[in-house]
């Protein structure tokens, strides 16, 4: 049995889909309020629980041989990105789990003090490495699926909002490629006990993204380049009323202010380990939006 947390998210539902296509037994850890009918239809065992509750994690882990931690947090990095994963690792040790796959974030090791998610992910990485479990830690750059709503808005309006330096580099990874790597990590020997940066096959400037959309939709882009201090002002104002939102915007600002890309050597290594060619952002968008 393979436990997948975050099973209704962009990464998790793709992971469950691939596992079920391989006829693997999957337990999908979901919230009662989430949309999990697709997972149920595909034959996944649905476990309804709350990752904020240790007892739910303990029950969800009973009898599992593999754990894939694919959940994230909207605003509660301490509870979801940190504490829930620590409990998952502890329960993996109790259950004698054969392999634990953890989805971290590119740049988790850079020491960004103003980004709670990055700090939480790095602490979990260290805890997992010291746990004695077999593991694979994947550190993805930006996910292509996160750009689909922006692409759809561009198709309708031609508008693209770019916050911060348009020359910052990124390597957007196909979310389907990431899901395949996660599933293959359970069995591929060269992925065992490794921390792997995960990016797409191209290093893009952030200003290249609206150009790609322009090419796909044959529409001249109208790029609005907003400065980072716009986020700083919003963060300061909202922080007066909600410190948790201020912390979340700290992570968001870190993502906007810095470069997150994999080198050519790193992507070549990924293709060698997992034995498939990585998909470009343009291919991903065309495929999903039927262009």
Polypeptide structure, described:
- 46% of the residues lie in helices and 16% in strands.
- By secondary structure, it is an alpha/beta fold.
- It is globular and about 55 Å long.
Tell me the layout of helices and strands.
Blueprint: E1 2-5, H1 10-21, E2 26-30, H2 37-41, E3 45-48, H3 54-61, E4 66-69, H4 77-95, E5 99-103, H5 116-129, E6 135-140, H6 148-157, E7 159-163, E8 169-170, H7 175-185, E9 194-198, E10 204-205, H8 208-217, E11 222-226, H9 229-239, H10 243-257, H11 264-274, H12 281-288
Parallel strand pairs: 1-2, 1-4, 2-3, 4-5, 5-6, 6-9, 7-11
Antiparallel strand pairs: 8-10
Helix pairs in contact: 1-7, 3-4, 4-5, 9-10
Strand percentage: 15-25%
Major sheet strand order: 3-2-1-4-5-6-9
**Mind summarizing the main beta sheet?**
7 strands, parallel
SSE order:
EHEHEHEHEHEHEEHEEHEHHHH
State the helix count: 12
Shape: globular
Task: Summarize model confidence as the mean pLDDT.
Answer: 92
Structural class: alpha/beta
Helix-residue proportion:
40-55%
Q: pLDDT under 50 segments (min length 5)?
A: none
By DSSP, the count of extended strands is 11
Q: What value does the Rg take, in angstroms?
A: 19 Å
> Kindly, what is the distance between the CA atoms of the first and last residues, rounded to a whole number of angstroms?
38 Å
């Amino acid at each position: 049995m393979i436990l997948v947390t975050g099973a209704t998210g962009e990464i998790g539902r793709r992971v469950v889909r691939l596992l079920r296509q391989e006829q693997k037994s999957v337990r999908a850890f979901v919230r009662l309020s989430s949309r999990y009918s697709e997972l149920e239809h595909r034959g996944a065992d649905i476990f309804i629980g709350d990752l904020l509750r240790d007892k739910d994690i303990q029950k969800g882990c009973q009898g599992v041989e593999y754990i894939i931690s694919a959940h994230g947090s909207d605003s509660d990095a301490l509870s979801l990105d940190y504490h829930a994963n620590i409990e998952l690792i502890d329960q993996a040790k109790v259950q004698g789990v054969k392999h634990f796959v953890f989805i971290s974030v590119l740049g988790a090791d850079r020491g960004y003090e103003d980004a709670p998610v990055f700090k939480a992910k790095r602490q979990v990485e260290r805890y997992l490495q010291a746990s004695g479990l077999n593991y694979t830690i994947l550190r993805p750059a930006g996910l292509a699926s996160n750009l689909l709503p922006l692409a759809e808005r561009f198709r309708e309006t031609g508008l693209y909002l770019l916050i911060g330096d348009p020359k910052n580099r990124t390597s957007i990874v196909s979310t389907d490629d990431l899901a395949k790597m996660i599933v293959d990590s359970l069995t591929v020997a060269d992925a065992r006990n490794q921390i792997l940066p995960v990016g797409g096959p191209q290093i893009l400037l952030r200003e290249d993204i609206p150009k790609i959309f322009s090419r796909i939709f044959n529409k001249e882009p109208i790029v609005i380049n907003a400065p980072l201090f716009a986020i700083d002002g919003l963060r300061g104002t909202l922080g007066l009323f909600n410190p948790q939102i201020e912390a979340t915007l700290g992570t968001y600002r870190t993502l906007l202010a810095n470069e997150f890309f994999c080198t050519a050597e790193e992507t070549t290594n990924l293709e060698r380990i997992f034995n498939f060619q990585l998909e470009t952002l343009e291919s991903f968008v065309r495929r999903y939006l039927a262009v």
